Structures are given as structure tokens and as C-alpha cells.
Amino acid sequence: MTTRIAIIGGGTGGLCLAQGLRQAGIDVSVHERSRTRTERLQGYRVHINPHGSAALHECLPAELWQRFLETTGTTSGPFSFVTERLRDLMVIDTELTSSPDPASDHHSVSRISLHQVLSDGLEGVLHHGKEFVGYRREGEVVVCEFADGSTVEADLVIGADGANSRVRKQFLPGAERVDTGIIAIAGKHPLTEETRKRLPARLTDGPSMVMPRTGAGLFTAPHELAGVPSVNDETVDYEPVLFDNTSSYVMWAYAADARRYPDNLTSLDGAELRALVLDLIHDWDPAFKELVAGSPEEAVSRLPIFTSKPVEPWPTSNVTLIGDAIHSMTPFRGIGANTALRDAQLLCRNLVEARKTGTVRSAVADYEHRMRDYGFAAVRDSERSARQFVSENRAGRTMARGMFRFFQAVPPLKRKVFSDHGDS
């Protein structure tokens, strides 16, 4: 008997899962509320760690995996922890984190390019303009209802509709997503030959985590392309920098507790947010002020930070969830997209195997059991990193800075501790 699978949401996890299922010949459809492939474009880089790379390699057809590799950034510098005066605390050399196998390596990719790769070749599978409003059960069949009045019947519905998932709200109404009280302001500085001369190599060659003495933090990461054209898509008039996936840039994100910001923060536009960050880092090294000041106002935005709360096990049924729809996390460890890709890989494997055994419900149950373990562990780790990033505890921050300096001074110990940096 053919199992019809409907995926609600065309984001990273949902599209990766659809690619894998389609490759296996399984009847799958994706229902995305955006009206076109270009409507939901987001312009910041995303870090793909070995978990994410393995999932993409397994789920994507060979030609799309190769296209993904061709659109990743070429920057290969070390990951650095630095002070606000741009003095090194610890440098994690690339040999501690890189792999000769692209399927188990780290990659930097534009979210736009990643979305384009994942949606390529899904004609007849990916349906746009489908705003999900709810589902109902008719025996063993789930009927999904959309705002345009259409419906689709499925034997298994997978909510991949992001942090504000409507599938989750109906399926697990008690699942909470809460405001952490942390707010980030992020931007992108174009990386050209001219701007490269004005920025130090530490900011243009690799990611950096800036740890001032207390109260805030700044993350920077270059995304450098080697002249590779973007994936083909509909012609669209992109906003400069923010929606361009063919130009190099340095992404930055300043984060602090909401109490450090003015009360009118939500009303500030890009130029005003940029000016605010410059005021907050007025006594930092001039390189950081150059990075922020050189970011076009349309590329600067405010990002409130939310996180999911762990959910008790639920009875397995013919509805399940992946990615941010179930375990939305803060961005402070760069593992949200990778965890969604890990979900897609695991669920795809299970469903492909279930086609042989005919035990779809068992396949979903195994996925949910394992996903809850690693997914909510990632949520907890990410929130802990977020709290540390903006900690007002001066003594604790001083201790952390000292620890990083100690690791830097004892290379064998640093190698032992950080050999798997970023894999979790």
C-alpha cells in the first residue's frame, strides 16, 4: 500500500526531507504558504556542521549535492575568541574542525542559496500559496486544510512549518516557545577588495566570537564566494546585500539582554539600529565600529531571541513534527538548521525502511524518541550558550576569558577539548 506523505512548510528541514523521500520513490508533497520560490528568501549565512552536511549528502540527488558545494563559502580561516579590543583569547585552527570529506565537513552557505538548492527539482512536489489552517482526521487519513479552500489527504502529515508552527499548535497545544529576553541586532558588511583593506584579517578570514568583559557579545563570520553564480531562479529585483546570494560579506550579530536597549527599540529602522550598536560598542576596537558602520541600513535588523521548552513524550500518531516546529532554539551555537537537517535524515531513513516492513507508525515512533533526545539537548545547550553570551556576571566572564587564554597556552589540551568543535 502506498503511503501518502504531506509536509507542511518548505523550509530547510521540510525540503531536505522531501528530496530524500522523492529520491526513494515515496509519494510526498510539500505545501508552502509563500506564493513563489523567492518570497521567503532570507539573506544571512548559515553554518552547516558535519551533522547537516551528512544529511544533505544523504538526502540530495548527487547533482544537487554538488551544486550545494559549489555555492558554499570559500573562507577557511580559524574560529577565534577575541576581546572587544580585538586581542586573541583562543584560536581554534581549521585542522581541528575540518575534514577532507565534504559530507563530514563544515560549510558556510547563504540561506538563499541553500533554499534554492533544496527546492530545485521538486516540480509537482512543492506547492506554493498553500497557507495551512488546520487538519482533521477521517479514520486513518489526515485531511489538511488550506486558506484558499483546498485540501489534501495524507496518511502521514509532517509539520515542518517553523517556530510558529500551526501544525504544532493543533497537535501539541501545550508545547511552549518563550521569549528569552535576549535581543540581537544583525547586519552584513560587503566584502570587497576595498573593504578588505579596512578590516583586519581576523574578521575577514574566519568566524570570531567577541567577549567583552560583561553584558553583551558580538559574533562575526565571513561568507566569501569565489565567483560562483547563484542557483537559477525566477528573475527578482533583490535588495542590495540583504537578498543577494552572489556577493561576499561579513555577517555580524550583536546580542544583549533587552534591558540594555532603549524602550523604543521595536520602532527603530535599520539606520537607527546601526547607530545604536555603534553607540553600544563605542569603546571597542575601531575595526568593529568599521564593520558595523559599513553595513548598509537595509541589511541591519532586530532579532528577538526565542526558545522552545522541552515537551513530554506524546502518543505517536499519523502527525509528527521536525525542525523548528518542535525544537526551536536560539542561534547562539549555530545548530538550529543542522538539527532540522538531522531530523530530515533520520525520519527519511525510517520511512524508507518502513516501506519494506510496512510499519510507518513504528518508524515515526523511533524518530520521535530519538529526536526528542538530541533535539531538546540542542535546545538546552543553545539556550545556555545564549545566557553566557550576554551574562552580566563580570567574575564569570573574567573566568571564561582566562580559561580560553589557558587553552590557547596549552595546545595539546586545546586540541583535546575542541577537536569536535561545532559538531554538536
TrEMBL record:
Superkingdom to which the source organism belongs: Bacteria
InterPro entries reported in the protein's UniProt record: FAD-bd, FAD/NAD-bd_sf
Pfam families associated with the record: FAD_binding_3
Any GO molecular function: FAD binding
Keywords tagged on the record: FAD, Flavoprotein, Monooxygenase, Oxidoreductase
Membrane spanning residue stretches: none
Domain FAD-binding: 3-171, 311-380
Coiled coil: none
Protein's name in the database: Monooxygenase FAD-binding protein
Classification of source organism: Bacteria, Bacillati, Actinomycetota, Actinomycetes, Pseudonocardiales
